[in-house]
Design brief:
Four copies of one chain form a homotetramer. Chain A has 201 residues and is mainly α. Chain A contains ten helices and no strands. The structure holds a DNA duplex (21 and 21 nucleotides).
Chain lengths: 201, 201, 201, 201
DNA sequence: CATGAATGAGCCTTCATTCAT
DNA sequence: AATGAATGAAGGCTCATTCAT
């Protein structure tokens, strides 16, 4: 028990250090030695837990995605109200990056720069989220007898794109935006558009 | 004249080759030698035109952005109709990446992976587009006496984020989407939202 | 007693494992960890019995040579007939390598690849065999009033060289040669040469 | 012309340095950096001429074998007298190793310790020599209506084994033997054996 | 001007050895 | 006594950059 716990704890420390370094430097410039130093261990130790640098990167990014996605899924799963669902996703995303600031750069700007396999894997992950979201949107449209004719997958893409853009702005931008208000405003745009409704009628 | 023209032409060839290689491989994996070979010149010659690899990258990406942005600006500048403006931007972006497919990967996925300075520069470029767009949106809202209260900068971010997401999907996704329809659908979402308008009334 | 017996048994297991691994991989490519695994013990334990990898190698190869040489000596010691003595040596060598196939590669191809000290030690061991053999040959020549004038040390070298070559061929060659016939043929060559004796007369 | 000559000259310098270092240290302990230093060039330069350390080793040992074997073949090819042929081989071998002392250790003790491919290649080379020699011996036996019944391949193996043993002794032994006498004595043993011919009659 | 052969700093990875348990 | 997790020195190889031609 104790030993496997210790190993798990050390593996976790390495993954944290890896996230920090990879996020700051990008995959290719990150040095295994730096990761080791930040994890407080020897260089060789990393290779007891991960086959090589690439494997370490993959495990790290997979862990982050797993945590993030699983959490999103469970929170949304049984939610029938689209607005609430999107709000939850948005808020959770903000929170997640706020509490993992050190890897924000990685997630937003640098994820797929290792090789084609990892790029493909990331693409597949993203596809899953899009599909999941599109399905919720579709359900919403159907259940509301919605007279508007929109492609739910397209909407999902737009929504996630907008979300990513706002994340980047919030994280790297000079004007820090309050996340609560941001969420509401963004959802308002998506639900009602920017068109002057009074004119529309 | 002739000499400086020749020089300019060679410089241009190097930049094209750099765009192709950096886009395919990413900054750190791209080899100066490959760029030289594709440009049809000797390896050392690159260093007669650019201080080093980093500088070459910067010049290349700057050139692309300059071309792209200038084109956008001039096309939109005197456009008063927001919908038309956004449509133009969207269509031009699609066309641009279609005709520069070899650097699409670079522009969408890999731009800021060199160092913090370049990341900051890119961020500033993006900021300019956002500001420009926000200004147009603001003008539209004001001139229409719009009763809806939205943050034009926020809308600009969302719009560009969505645009980027659709670009990525169109470029790397399995289902190639027709760009004309895509544009219309996307703008429809942004203008009227996804809410059931019949219910809304 | 019991403890020292146990220790001896473990030491022996390590030496056997070392012989197997060193023979298969060669000194530098052999991994201490593999030896430990094959010996069924922990990696650190090896260092309780041997100072380091080099020492382990030395002890192992010394043990093999000791067993081999002692056996040869005792079998030949009181043999007065040279032909019988050479036959015994040849047959015993074949048998020894047949029953230690796993270290044949080591003994034939890889022994002295560690450092100069070990190479010198091996050279000295070989010298002993040569001297021993030369002495027997000398005795034979003297006692037979042999009219042929040959350098017994030279003959010893030639005989052992030929023996080694045949061992290598038998072990790694495609045509497995029957050892009994081989011995007779080889001794025949050494005793009577390849010259046409009928012509000679 | 000039350039390719210079390249050839440098390649040759690298191969010489490689022979010296590999011979002294063995493949695995030899450092590429040492080879470069001895060749008087930078470490990276070696990789302009050879794919990697293994390839360098292979090219070096192949070159040595090619030079050696080709020379032997051409000298022996049209020789009908077996004794002269064997004498030529023996003398040439002595001369070759005398003039390439620095790689003697490599050729005698360490050649096949890199990997199985190279070991197999070396084995094949040796096989060629054996076959070549066996063929000459066979021709000799046939043409002389030799009444002695010996396996020419076996004789070839024995001869080469004895030759190798004498080479090793001459190179590493304390008593330097004069090569001219050595050759005669050795051939005498092979042709007439050590048996007392007066007794034989 | 243009070149590409040469360089060597830099980094990933291995593995003999140690030492806390 | 025995272990095996941890270490870090060492070495193969790459590639941006230089400079002699």
């Amino acid at each position: 028990m104790k030993i496997s716990e210790k190993k798990e704890e050390k593996r976790s420390r390495i993954l944290d250090a890896a996230a920090a370094v990879f996020s700051k430097e990008g995959y290719h410039q990150a040095k295994v030695e730096d990761i080791a130093r930040i994890a407080g261990i020897g260089k060789g130790t990393i290779y007891l837990y991960f086959k090589n640098k690439r494997h370490l990167y993959y495990c790290m990014i997979k862990e982050i995605y797993d945590i993030f996605l699983e959490s999103i899924y469970t929170q949304i799963e049984c939610e029938n109200d689209l607005k609430k669902a999107l709000k939850t996703i948005t808020e959770y995303t903000f929170d997640f990056l706020d509490s993992h600031k050190e890897m924000a750069n990685l997630l937003i700007n640098r994820p797929g720069t290792v090789d084609e396999d990892i790029q493909a894997w990331l693409f597949a992950q993203k596809q899953k989220i899009v599909d999941f979201l599109a399905q919720i949107i579709k359900k919403y449209a159907d259940s509301n007898n919605c007279d508007r004719d929109f492609d739910s997958t397209l909407v999902a893409h737009c929504f996630l794109g907008a979300l990513a853009a706002l994340m980047a702005e919030r994280l790297f931008g000079y004007n820090k935006i309050d996340s609560a208000k941001l969420t509401d405003k963004m959802l308002d745009i998506f639900f009602h558009g920017i068109h002057n409704s009074s004119v529309q009628v």
